[in-house]
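Notes from the 1:1 (GR / supervisor)

We went over the backlog. Supervisor wanted to see one worked example end to end before approving the batch request, so GR pasted a single chain during the call. The sequence is below; no edits were made to it. Supervisor asked that the structure be written out right there so they could see what the output format looks like.
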Amino acid sequence: MSPVSTDTSPAVNLYLVVGYDGSPPAIRALDAAVRLLNGRAGSIDVLYVAHMPAVDMMSADALAEMRVDFDDIERELRTAAGEQLSGREDRWKFERRQGGIADELLAAAQATQDAHPDDTVAIVVGSSSQAMHRLVGSVAVSMVRRAPVPVVVVP
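Structure output shown during the call:
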């Protein structure tokens, strides 16, 4: 019989990047992140990616209007995330980025990994509905294929 080691590896911090747009899948992803972080050192980065369709970028007026809309959406989502996390988790921050959703989540996770190379970093996203997946593809599927860190897809 081989000896059993009782040594445990040193605890590492857990940094979670959560894609958040206020949708039911994003709400479930943020709830899952809270459960994953429970009892561990680390934090949650709640990330809203303001995605601007290429058509809107053709008009300066449309671009200005979209930026105002994105500012309003950011405030609403920051408030919603704060309410969802209130009394449950206080180690979080909210960030808005501009660009492709999967690309920005991956970039945020990579930046966190670069800043904390000895710790664990993971992306947490909610799964999209079948209808939405057929229309625009799945951000989760795209990330799982390219991610430099683990991706947790919450049903």
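Supervisor's comment: The helical segments are 24-37, 60-85, 101-115, 130-136, 139-146.
Batch request approved.
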